[in-house]
Amino acid sequence: MTVAGIAAALAVGLAVGALGRLVVPGRSSVPLWLTMTIGAVAALLGAISAWLAGVRGFSLLGLVVQAGLAAVGVVIVVATAGKERSDSR
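User: That's the sequence. What structure does it adopt?
Assistant: Structure tokens below.
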């Protein structure tokens, strides 16, 4: 994995994190910086996963894995943040 690959993964993650708030309807209690951070970390994990799976260099498959993991991470965090737990006793 090269420095350019890491930089590309960070860029993808930051973009997905910024746009991820638009996916979940309603007002979000999660700050923008947190969604962007989650997106960047998840995209890096996607880049590492793709690299370990044998995807080398810049490829569409690697980009899809990065963006996909970043989107899933952001949606999970935004959808679950601020939810009150119901006490069903």
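The chain has a mean pLDDT of 79.
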